[in-house]
Specification:
- 2 copies of one chain form a homodimer.
- The first copy, chain A, is an alpha+beta fold.
- Chain A has 12 helices and 18 strands.
- In chain A, the strands form 3 sheets. In chain A, strands 10, 11, 12, 13, 14, 15, 16, 17 and 18 form a 9-stranded antiparallel beta sheet that branches. A 5-stranded parallel beta sheet of chain A has the order 3-2-1-4-5, with helices on both faces.
- In chain A, strand 10 and strand 11 form a beta hairpin.
- Chain A is globular.
- The first copy, chain A, starts with a strand and ends with a helix.
- Chains A and B meet through helix 1, helix 11 and strand 17 of A and helix 1, helix 11 and strand 17 of B.
- Chains A, B: This is N5-carboxyaminoimidazole ribonucleotide synthase.
C-alpha cells in the first residue's frame, strides 16, 4: 500500500495550512504540537516537546514520513530518526543549512552561489576588522535561533555585538557570529522550489517580498517588472541550492536584488514559507500541497500562477480587542473577492495571526484591495 | 464574541470538504459522524445516530450553528432543536422540501415555478390514469429517501410501482408516490445558490451535469453554449426557490433543459452538492466556503468563475484493488495540472470515492484531461 501518512513536527500555522491539501488529496496528516490548542490543533495527534527524543520517536512510529512546521528540531534527534529508518524530509544533512547560518554561508560559498561578503567572527576585534573593510557598517546575525528579524542587527562599531559574544561564551558551546556586508538592495525577492527525494523539482514564479521591522508584510507574485535574467537567475540559484544541499520538500530562498543588478542569497527556509502563501489561491499547486507531494515522493504538481497577479498581505498583530472573527462581517462585506486566512491564534502585537490574498489582472488594484481587506483586522 | 463554531451532522464527503475552508477562514468545525472512520473523521467530535434526539441535542450544545452533510435528519428532531433555540441552517421548514419530493412539487407549483407535469398517486389505478394522460410512460419516485438514482424508476404500466405501493402500505405511514411526465430533455443543468438567514444570495454560473445510471458523472462549468435566457432563467428560478422556501446555506437546483427550450426543476438539495465541486478550484468562493459563510450569516463571497472552463469528473467505484493513493504516482505524473480529491473511502463499485477537477480556456482540452486524469483511478 502507498505511503500516505505525513507527520508534521510543530503545530503552527504552516502545519495548519498543510491540512486542507492533505484532506483534498486524501493524505492522512498528523501533527505533534508543542502545546494543546495550537494553530494545527485539528490534526494534532500528540502533544509534546520536539527536543525530547522519546516524544519524537513515539510520534514517528505513527506516520510514514516526518516533516516540519519549523526548523528547530535538534540535529541529534533527526539523525537518530534516520538511523532508525524513519523517512525524514528534509533530512538532517540538508536541514543543517537552514538551522545554522554560518554553515549555510560556508556551503553556498563552496557551491559558488552569490552571497553577500561575510565572515565568521568570534570577537569584537574580528568584527572591527570586518567593519573596517566594509565601510564601517555591517549586519551581524546569530548563527542559530533567529527568525522574523530576531537575531539580526545592524552594527557600526566593533563593540556592537558584545552582548551576543558574551551569550555565546556563557552558553559554553562557544562558536562564532555571522557578519555580512550591508547590501544595498532595491528590493527583496523570494524563490520557492519543491524537490522530491527522487530529484524532481518544481519552481514557482519568483516573488517580491516587502518586510517591515524585519517581518514579512506583503508578497507580490510574480515580482513586478523583473527582467528575464533575474527570473532565470533566481530559479537557477534555487535549483542549485535544492540539488546541492539535497533539500526535500519546499525550500524558500530569500534574496536581495541589489541596486547594481545582482541577485544575492539572503536566507533559506526548508519548509513552506510566508513568501509562498499566495500560492494557495494564486498557483495551480500551492506550496502546502506541493510540500506534501514532495515529502511523500509523489510527482509534483504544476507551480504555474493562475492569475496575472497575486498579492498576499499579512495580518500582523490582529485586532486590539476581540478576535479576527469579530471583524469578519465588515471585512467580508467590503471584500467579497478577497480570501481570508485566520490561523486560530489570539491577537498579540506583531504576531502573524492571518493573511489575506487577492488575485487579478491589475496590479495596483490587487495591491490596494489586499491591503484594504487586511486593514479590517488591525487596530 | 462572534459565532464561530459550525456543527455538521453527517460525516460524509460533503462534511469533509467543508473542513478546508473552515481551517482557512478560521472557523471551528465539528462533525457528528454516523460511525468512526468516515470521510470527515478529522473534524469528528461525536459519533452517533442522527435519528436519536439526545445524540443530536448533546452535539448541538457544543456548537453555534447546526448544518448538514445530508438531508436525512428527521423533521421532528430538527423542530425540537429550533424549539430549544438552536440555530439550524437550513431550518426544518425549508429542509422539508428537500426531504419530501411531493411537498417539494406542491410548493414549487404553488410558487408558479416550472416543473414537469406531476401527480401524487396512491394506487396502481392512479398511476394508470397518469400514464394514460402522458403517452404511456412516466417517472415514479418515492417521496422520501431517494438519492443517486435510488427511489426513481421509469414505468410503462400501471402495475410498475406495485412493490413501492406495498412497501408504503406496510410501512404503516401510508402516503403517496410522486409520478412525473418523462421529460424530453436535451441536457441537465444545475444552478447553485447560497442564501444567508438575513436574505443575501449569491449565484454561481449555471452548470451542465452529465448523469450515468442516475449518478452524476461529470460537471461542466459554465454549461456550454447556454443562451442568455437560459442563464437568467436558471438563476431566477434558484432565487425564487431560495427566497420562497426560506433556504439558508447552499441550495442546488437540478433542472432539465428540454428539447423545446424550457427549463424545468427536477430536484432540490439543500447543502453543498456534487454539481458544485468544481467551485473548489473553479470559483472565487467555493460552495463549501460559501455554505460556512451562509450558515454563520456572514457576508457571502464572490461566486464568479476563475477560469473560462472548469470540468469535474467523479471517481466512481475507484480502483478494483488497493486504494486511490496507489494510483497517485502514475496519475499525478501524467496530470500535474489536475486537482485530485480523495474522500478517504474504501473503493466499492458505484461509490463516489473522489473527483478530479481541471480548469482552463479550451473546453475540449479541459474535458479530455479531466476524464483522462480520473480514469487512472478506475479499473
Amino acid at each position: 500500500m502507498a505511503k500516505n501518512t505525513v507527520g508534521v513536527i510543530g503545530g503552527g500555522q504552516l502545519a495548519r495550512m498543510m491540512i486542507p491539501p492533505a484532506i483534498e488529496l486524501g493524505v492522512d496528516i498528523r501533527v505533534l504540537e508543542e502545546a494543546e490548542g495550537m494553530s494545527a490543533e485539528l490534526a494534532a495527534t500528540a502533544v509534546g516537546d520536539y527536543r525530547d527524543l522519546d516524544t519524537v520517536l513515539a510520534f514517528a512510529e505513527t506516520v510514514d514520513v516526518i516533516t516540519f512546521d519549523h526548523e528547530h528540531v535538534p540535529p541529534a534527534i533527526l539523525r537518530e530518526l534516520v538511523n532508525r529508518g524513519v523517512q525524514v524530509h528534509p533530512g538532517p544533512d540538508a536541514l543543517l543549512y537552514a538551522q545554522d547560518k554560518l554553515q549555510m554561508r560556508a556551503k553556498l560559498t563552496e557551491l559558488g552561489l552569490p552571497v553577500p561578503d561575510w565572515a565568521a567572527v568570534e570577537s569584537a576585534e574580528d568584527l572591527g576588522a570586518f567593519l573596517d573593510d566594509h565601510g564601517g557598517r555591517a549586519v551581524v546575525k546569530t548563527a542559530r535561533g533567529g527568525y522574523d528579524g530576531k537575531g539580526v542587527r545592524v552594527v557600526s562599531d566593533a563593540a556592537g555585538a558584545d552582548d551576543w559574544f558574551l551569550a555565546l561564551a556563557e552558553d559554553g558551546r562557544g562558536g562564532a557570529l555571522l557578519v555580512e556586508e550591508l547590501v544595498s538592495f532595491q528590493r527583496e525577492l523570494a524563490q520557492l522550489i519543491a524537490r522530491r527525494p527522487s530529484g524532481q523539482t518544481a519552481v514557482w514564479p519568483v516573488v517580491e517580498t516587502v518586510q517591515r521591522d524585519g517581518v514579512c508584510a506583503e508578497v507580490i507574485a510574480p515580482a513586478p517588472g523583473s527582467s528575464e535574467r533575474v527570473v532565470e537567475v533566481a530559479a537557477e540559484i534555487a535549483r542549485r541550492i535544492a540539488d546541492g544541499l539535497g533539500v526535500t520538500g519546499v525550500l524558500a530562498v530569500e534574496m536581495f536584488e541589489t541596486t547594481d543588478g545582482r541577485v544575492l542569497v539572503n536566507e533559506l527556509a526548508m519548509r513552506p514559507h510566508n513568501s509562498g502563501h499566495w500560492s494557495i489561491e494564486g498557483a495551480v499547486t500551492s506550496q502546502f500541497e506541493q510540500h506534501l507531494r514532495a515529502v511523500l515522493d509523489l510527482p509534483l504538481g504544476a507551480p504555474d500562477a493562475r492569475d496575472d497577479w497575486s498579492v498576499m498581505v499579512n495580518i500582523l498583530g490582529g485586532p486590539s480587542e476581540g478576535t479576527l472573527q469579530d471583524r469578519y462581517p465588515a471585512a467580508l462585506a467590503a471584500h467579497p473577492e478577497a480570501k481570508f486566512h485566520g490561523y486560530g491564534k489570539d491577537p498579540r502585537p506583531g504576531r502573524k495571526v492571518g493573511h489575506v490574498t487577492v488575485t487579478g489582472d491589475d496590479l495596483d488594484d490587487v495591491v490596494y484591495r489586499a491591503r484594504a481587506a487586511a486593514a479590517f483586522f488591525e487596530g
